Amino acid sequence: MLLHASLFGLSEAGASPAQQDALRVLERLDVLPALVSIWVPSVGAAVFTDSVREAIELRSLGSVLLVAVALLGVGFLVGGLYLTLGAATVRGERISLPGLSYRTIALAVRLGLLVLFTVSLAFFPFVLTVLLLQYVPGLGALLAMLALSFLLWLEFYVFFAVDGLALTRWGVREAVRRTIALVHEHFWSAVGLFGLYWVIVLGTSIIWTGLLSVHVFSLALGRVLAILGNAYVGTWVSLATLLYVWDRLTLHETPDHTASTT
Questions:
Q1: pTM for the predicted model, two decimal places
Q2: Which of 19, 91, 133, 241 could be joined to 15 by an S-S link, Cβ 3.0–4.6 Å?
């Protein structure tokens, strides 16, 4: 599902060099991965790309925003459902279908707010870094290293805030505040889990990506093995992080505003 280069009514013939570079990028911009939630184990949308490569053409900024909101909304709902089921497993709950629907939508909304909060924190350092790299390269390079450190720190805390949202009824601000306190109290174990999570996810992704192109009896079988293997490993890793947060939330106190069995 690709964005067409005529997105803003420009053609390479009448565009500046910078606009021509942007148009070439847009010609190759695949929007299908937006459907894949960042919280759900996935080998990526590349598996399906070949069959939908000429699916959509967008010619206005409004249509781009509409498609982006729709795809991201579906992604948040999928992520909300996945995390709700995982949290229920960790808490030992049984959820009715109406309760599952309500909690999925509520969690999807809070995840969206968490993403907006995170993007708002990262936006100013990103813009400032880009401007300095363009006009003051030396200072910009130094700021880029500081910005990367800040983004890593931000990702570290948001990583556990997502589990806090899934396991409780906390709002975004409360989840961020409490998970920061939790990480500070169990800092080195949290760092170890965070690092182990990414080692497993990034390491096994090499295997799954390789299987996508390996002919095991047939190409389709290789894809199936990659999808199943990634889902199995990714789900266990996700449950491990949820269990880690839940154990520490209940270690000293019973979390208030937690989701009750429905």
A1: 0.72
A2: 19
